[in-house]
């Protein structure tokens, strides 16, 4: 009778241990291939649509042809990790998980072979529309946030803040480029209703408009309404040159654009540096806008 096979526990343990270790490595490798762009739990999302968009965009997936099974698995993996860290996971994330599973189950159902292809609804269509709408709002919000950051950076610039808060006895508000554009739009709309008269005249330049403003404002002790400056301008080219001349003088900090009230008429006020900057006609002004 052959002797029973004896196993040395010390020698057998490593050999036996390699089997589950190998399987674990394979499982890990397969999981990594299934989730090549899996999001980290530490990342913060405003809601479930944010998470879905991130999963789709990171993997360059066509949003109109989302592989619902793959995305559902990745989404559920994220929510599961989230629940391990926080039991009180937001209901929105749980609801979206249920919705994804529902869509996945509908995708698995056989379609009616007799129904025309164009009449068969795609179970993903409603979700895709919600994702596209959410992405639009998200992009708009990001654009507004960037605009706000730029405006705050401009207003907190010491040189610009000092210029905008320069001395003045009357309570006024600083007018920006948008207010300037609105004023010019009104003038242009009025100009369209006037009868056209073709006149061969010498081309007007920005430099000439700067010189005109220098002479006109030198005669004024008080701020002058922008509409008064534009009354004598009849052509579109002269209006454009005036617009650029005003922007250039603001850049040089020779003038200020103010308003007595919100959305009120734009006033042009000489800055305290007006005489020094424009002592010589258009000495430091640009005339290369054309």
Give an overview in words:
It is a single chain. This protein is mainly alpha-helical. It has two domains: 112 residues, no CATH class; 101 residues, Orthogonal Bundle (Arc Repressor Mutant, subunit A). It contains eleven helices and four strands, in the order H-H-H-H-H-H-E-H-H-E-H-H-E-E-H. A hairpin with a 6-residue loop joins strand 3 and strand 4. Helix 7 runs antiparallel to helix 10 and helix 8 packs across helix 10. The termini are far apart.
Shape: elongated
Structural class: mainly alpha
Order of helices and strands: HHHHHHEHHEHHEEH
Radius of gyration: 35 Å
Strand adjacency order, main sheet: 1-3-4-2
Strand content: under 5%
List the helices and strands and how they pair.
Layout (H helix, E strand, L loop, with lengths): L8 H26 L13 H11 L9 H18 L5 H18 L16 H31 L2 H7 L8 E2 L2 H16 L13 H13 L5 E2 H5 L5 H16 L3 E5 L6 E5 L3 H4 L13
Antiparallel strand pairs: 1-3, 2-4, 3-4
Helix pairs in contact: 2-5, 3-4, 7-10, 8-10
Short description:
The chain has helices at residues 9-34, 48-58, 68-85, 91-108, 125-155, 158-164, 177-192, 206-218, 226-230, 236-251, 274-277; strands spanning 173-174, 224-225, 255-259, 266-270. With 290 residues, the chain is mainly alpha-helical. Strands 1-3-4-2 form a four-stranded antiparallel β-sheet.
């Amino acid at each position: 009778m052959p002797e029973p096979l004896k196993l040395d526990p010390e020698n057998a343990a490593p050999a036996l241990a390699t089997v589950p270790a190998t399987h674990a490595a394979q499982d890990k490798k397969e999981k990594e291939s299934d989730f090549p762009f899996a999001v980290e739990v530490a990342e913060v999302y405003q809601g479930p649509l944010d998470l879905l968009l991130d999963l789709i965009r990171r993997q360059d997936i066509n949003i109109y042809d989302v592989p619902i099974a793959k995305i559902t698995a990745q989404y559920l993996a994220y929510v599961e990790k989230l629940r391990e860290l926080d039991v009180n996971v937001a209901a929105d994330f749980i609801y979206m998980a249920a919705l994804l599973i529902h869509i996945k189950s509908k995708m698995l159902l056989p379609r009616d072979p007799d129904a025309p292809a164009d009449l068969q609804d795609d179970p993903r269509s409603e979700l895709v529309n919600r994702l596209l709408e959410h992405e639009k709002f998200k992009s708009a919000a990001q654009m507004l946030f960037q605009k706000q950051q730029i405006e705050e950076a401009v207003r907190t610039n010491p040189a610009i803040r000092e210029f905008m808060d320069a001395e003045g006895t009357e309570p006024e508000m600083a007018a920006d480029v948008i207010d300037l554009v609105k004023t010019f739009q009104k003038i242009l709309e009025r100009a369209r209703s006037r009868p056209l008269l073709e006149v061969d005249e010498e081309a007007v330049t920005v430099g000439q408009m700067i010189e005109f403003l220098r002479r006109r404002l030198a005669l004024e002790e008080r701020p002058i309404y922008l509409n008064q400056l534009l009354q004598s301008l009849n052509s579109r080219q002269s209006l454009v040159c005036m617009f650029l001349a005003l922007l250039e003088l603001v850049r040089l900090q020779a003038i200020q654009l103010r308003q007595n009230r919100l959305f009120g008429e734009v006033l042009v006020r000489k800055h305290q540096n007006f005489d020094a900057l424009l002592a010589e006609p258009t000495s430091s002004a640009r005339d290369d806008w054309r």
